Amino acid sequence: MVNYLDPAFASLTDPIRRGIVRLLSQRPHRAGELYAEFDVSKPAISRHLRILRENGLVEERRIAADGRGRMYVLRTEPLEVASGWLDEVSRAWQAQLDAFKEYVEGGSA
To answer: 44, CA 20 to 30 Å: which among 12, 19, 75, 96?
Structure first.
């Protein structure tokens, strides 16, 4: 299995990249559509998209009808791996909290 966990979390540390992921979770977007959503320069959005691509969260596709146009698509597998890891940690944490609650309430020593 490919290790998506570290790259996924590293990619999501920036609020603009999280915003791009949120937009792409709704549907694929052209680069221009993404640029229009944020109050930063086009080169800044391009850098964020490059980081997301390099970390496997986003895929870039050329638009056949427009040789220069690009469509950005969210890759869900890295996010599913991260979500699974968070679920696992959450279940373990909840089990510890439940055991502590039982101990405090005098259920076991």
So the answer is: 75
* Locus of tokens 């427009």: 66
Q: Most distant CA pair in the chain: distance in Å?
A: 70
Give CA–CA dist 108/91, Å, rounded: 21
Per-residue pLDDT reduced to its tens digit, 56-103: 999 998 877 766 778 999 998 887 877 777 788 788 788 788 788 888
**pTM greater than 0.85:** no
